[in-house]
Specification:
Elements lengths: L6 E3 L4 H11 L3 E2 L17 H19 L10 E10 L27 H12 L6 E13 L2 E13 L18 E3 L4 E2 L5 H7 L1 H12 L1
Parallel strand pairs: 1-2, 1-3
Antiparallel strand pairs: 3-4, 4-5, 5-6, 6-7
């Protein structure tokens, strides 16, 4: 079924697109590849609210614009993900990409990933509670009110400080989330390992089974 349809991904994040294509085993189309501007305001209060918001926004845009390559009935895939740190009350959570320091401040201008996780580690300080998880909510939408939604996690611990951030793979907060049973951060995992155990990998596999 997946080979006979175009699947549109409600994102402009090339890293996420590459990861999901490997997980699903199919090519995804992002709006910019069809000449579409797509940057909906993420006004939801949860990961799954934001994922559904993005999926519906792209579906409406595709129906209105009918870009080259779009066929009525093509599904839309969307995700919203972030890092939830227990000692910070679950922050930065849905604001992970816009995190700007203590008290969960939100930045209007996105900081670099190293800047964000340095601020996170500074806020966490010497707190001994280091448990945290990546969360991914993923939506597969066929129409405004016909969709599937899954949510998965990757459990781990925040490293002790900036000097303990390790790895050159992945993106975002990957260098600072340690997987204790592996003794490595997410950024130290191979693409294959990460796609097998990650929050996005598990959610994507659930979506693949639905397709």
């Amino acid at each position: 079924m997946m080979k006979s349809m175009n699947i549109w991904f409600a994102s402009g994040n090339a890293h996420k697109k590459t990861e999901l294509e490997a997980i699903l085993g199919v090519k995804l189309i992002i709006p910019s590849e069809a000449g579409l501007e797509f940057d909906p305001a993420e006004t939801g209060n949860t990961f799954h609210e934001n994922a559904l918001l993005k999926a519906r926004a792209l579906h409406r845009l595709l129906c209105e614009r009918s870009p080259a390559g779009y066929r009525k009935g093509d599904p839309v895939l969307a995700d919203d993900s972030g890092l939830c740190v227990d000692a910070l009350g679950g922050r930065p959570g849905i604001y992970s990409a816009r995190y700007a320091g203590p008290a969960g401040e939100v930045s209007g201008t996105k900081l670099t990933s190293p800047q964000r996780y340095a601020l996170l580690l500074d806020e966490l300080g010497a707190n001994q509670q280091r448990s945290a998880r990546f969360v991914c909510a993923m939506v597969l939408l066929f129409s405004e009110d016909c969709y599937y939604l899954v949510q998965e996690t990757l459990e781990g611990e925040i490293v002790k400080g900036v000097d303990a951030a390790r790895g050159s793979g992945g993106f975002g907060y990957d260098p600072v989330l340690l997987i204790p049973e592996l003794g490595r951060t997410v950024a130290e995992l191979s693409d294959e390992e990460k796609n097998r155990i990650s929050h996005r990998g598990k959610a994507g596999k659930a979506i693949a089974r639905l397709l």
